[in-house]
Design brief:
Strands 1-2-3-5-4-7-6 form a 7-stranded antiparallel beta sheet. The longest helix has 21 residues. The protein has one domain: Histidine kinase-like ATPase, C-terminal domain (Heat Shock Protein 90). The two termini are 25 Å apart. It is of the alpha+beta class. The radius of gyration is 15 Å and the shape is globular. Helices cover 29% and strands 32% of the residues. β6 and β7 form a beta hairpin. Keywords: ATP-binding, Kinase, Nucleotide-binding, Serine/threonine-protein kinase, Transferase.
C-alpha cells in the first residue's frame, strides 16, 4: 500500500495553530476529503488539539504530519502525528465544568479511532488515527505506551 505523507513545521507560537488548521484543510481537500465532510471537521479538530498541546505545553517548535493510505478519498485510515522536542509524556486530565482548558486529550480520545504517543529522539510523537467511514462506537481499551484502540 502506498502512503502519502505531508508535513508542516510549526513554530512555538499559539498563532501557529490557526495556520496548521488552514494547512490541514488544504491538504485534506487535496487528498479527496472535502471540506464539507464530517471527517474533515474531525481531523481538523484533532490537529488543532494536538498542535495546541505541543505549542502551549512545551514551548518548542513541532512538526505536524498527515499520512494518507492509497485511496484515502474512498477508504482507509488518516493518521495525524505531532512531534516535538519535549520528552514529557502527555498527561490526560479531567477538566471541571467551568474549566477553560484541559480537554484536549479527552477530545482526541473521544474522536479518534486510535491514539497514542511514543518517544522520538530527544522528544516525543503523539499520533491519532481516524478510519474513513468507520462508525464511532464501542469502548476504548488502553494498551501499552498510551495507545488507545476503539473496538466496535
Amino acid at each position: 500500500m502506498q502512503v502519502l505523507q505531508v508535513q508542516l513545521e510549526v513554530g512555538p507560537d499559539p498563532a501557529e495553530v490557526g495556520r496548521a488548521r488552514r494547512w490541514a484543510r488544504s491538504r485534506l481537500e487535496g487528498s479527496g476529503i472535502g471540506d464539507d465532510e464530517p471527517l474533515s471537521e474531525t481531523l481538523v479538530l484533532l490537529i488543532s488539539e494536538l498542535v495546541t498541546n505541543a505549542v502551549v505545553h512545551t514551548g518548542c517548535p513541532a512538526v505536524l504530519r498527515m499520512l494518507f493510505g492509497a485511496g484515502a478519498a474512498e477508504a482507509g485510515t488518516v493518521r495525524v502525528e505531532v512531534a516535538d522536542a519535549s520528552d514529557c509524556p502527555p498527561r490526560p486530565r479531567r477538566a471541571g465544568g467551568d474549566d477553560t482548558n484541559g480537554r484536549g486529550l479527552e477530545l482526541v480520545d473521544g474522536l479518534a479511532d486510535r491514539w497514542g504517543w511514543q518517544p522520538e529522539g530527544a522528544g516525543k510523537r503523539i499520533w491519532c488515527e481516524v478510519d474513513r467511514g468507520a462508525p464511532m462506537t464501542g469502548s476504548a481499551v488502553r494498551e501499552p505506551l498510551g495507545v488507545v484502540t476503539r473496538h466496535a
